[in-house]
């Protein structure tokens, strides 16, 4: 199976270890992973801000770049949702690539039929289901099933897990007061679990949460769940 990694802008520029973790997990399972150098932004920020025409060159580039692959893996619920939900509306002929684009947990469980990826992570962990993964991709229990299979990992429920962390891209800037209040509630819930690590499927949300925790000198680490699955 030829799988291509679409690493996303945020991961490429700020969290490269997440992309490396995806490759580690898939290669451990015997999957060949390519990284097409022609990839750029998926255009999500532009479309969300109303710049649909400006996003189209990025959409076309994504489709052309990833057309040859049987599957595209994306370590981001929001970017995967952009490709799957918005591309067919923005660009005729893109539905094929969009349908073969998967968030990591979808690829592992739905396509590869794998739950135990051979990971070991001896920490207490709680999981925040980000909005795009929860409401757009409907990931459901998939990331949790993968975490439950990690050896020596203690997974604890997050109170109010279905509530948004308050990031929402430009929402956090345009509505900073509301965003900060939502973040405070999320950090309080995370703190109450006694977890050493809060995991999620989107590093953008984890940056928001991690910032809130660090400003209050909370020792909880924010970590993409792919990096937990890569641990051994």
Order of helices and strands: EHHEHHEHHEHEHHEHHEHEH
- N- to C-terminal distance: 24 Å
Poorly predicted segments: none
The tally of beta strands, per DSSP, is: 8
> What is the C-alpha radius of gyration, as a whole number of Å?
17 Å
Helix content: 40-55%
Mean pLDDT: 96
Structural class by helix and strand composition: alpha/beta
In the residues, how many domains can be counted?
2
User: Which CATH class of the largest domain applies here?
Assistant: Alpha Beta
- Percent in strands: 5-15%
Strand order of the largest sheet: 2-1-3-4
Quick overview:
The protein has 13 helices and 8 strands.
Can you describe this structure?
This protein folds into two domains: 2-111, 3-Layer(aba) Sandwich (Rossmann fold), CATH 3.40.50; 124-230, Rossmann fold (3-Layer(aba) Sandwich). Helix content is 51%, strand content 12%. The protein has 13 helices and eight strands. Helix 12 (203-215) links the parallel strand 7 and strand 8. It is of the alpha/beta class and 232 residues long. The strands form two sheets. The protein has a four-stranded parallel sheet with strand order 2-1-3-4, with helices on both faces. It has a four-stranded parallel sheet with strand order 6-5-7-8, sandwiched between helices.
Secondary-structure blueprint:
Layout: E1 2-5, H1 9-14, H2 16-28, E2 32-34, H3 44-48, H4 52-66, E3 71-74, H5 77-90, H6 95-99, E4 101-103, H7 104-111, E5 124-127, H8 131-136, H9 142-148, E6 154-156, H10 171-174, H11 176-192, E7 197-200, H12 203-215, E8 221-224, H13 225-230
Parallel strand pairs: 1-2, 1-3, 3-4, 5-6, 5-7, 7-8
Helix pairs in contact: 11-12
């Amino acid at each position: 199976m030829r799988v291509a990694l679409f690493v996303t802008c945020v991961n490429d520029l700020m969290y490269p270890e997440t992309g490396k973790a995806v490759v580690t997990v898939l290669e451990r399972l015997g999957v060949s992973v390519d990284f097409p150098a022609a990839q750029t932004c998926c255009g999500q920020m532009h479309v969300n801000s109303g710049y649909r025409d400006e996003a189209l060159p990025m959409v076309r580039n994504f489709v052309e770049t990833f057309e040859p692959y049987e599957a595209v893996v994306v370590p981001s619920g929001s970017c995967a949702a952009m490709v799957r939900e918005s591309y067919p509306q923005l660009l005729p002929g893109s539905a094929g690539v969009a349908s073969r684009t998967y968030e990591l947990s979808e690829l592992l469980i739905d396509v590869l039929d794998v739950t135990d990826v051979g990971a070991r992570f001896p920490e207490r962990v709680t999981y925040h289901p980000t909005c795009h993964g929860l409401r757009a991709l409907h990931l459901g229990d998939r990331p949790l099933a993968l975490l439950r299979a990690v050896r020596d990992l203690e997974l604890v429920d997050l109170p109010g897990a279905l509530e948004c962390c308050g990031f929402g891209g430009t929402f956090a800037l345009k509505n900073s007061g509301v965003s900060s209040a939502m973040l405070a509630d999320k950090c309080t819930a995370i703190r109450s679990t006694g977890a050493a690590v809060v995991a999620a499927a989107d590093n953008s949300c984890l940056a928001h949460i991690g910032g809130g925790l660090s400003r209050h000198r909370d020792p909880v680490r924010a970590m993409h769940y792919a990096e937990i699955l890569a641990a051994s």
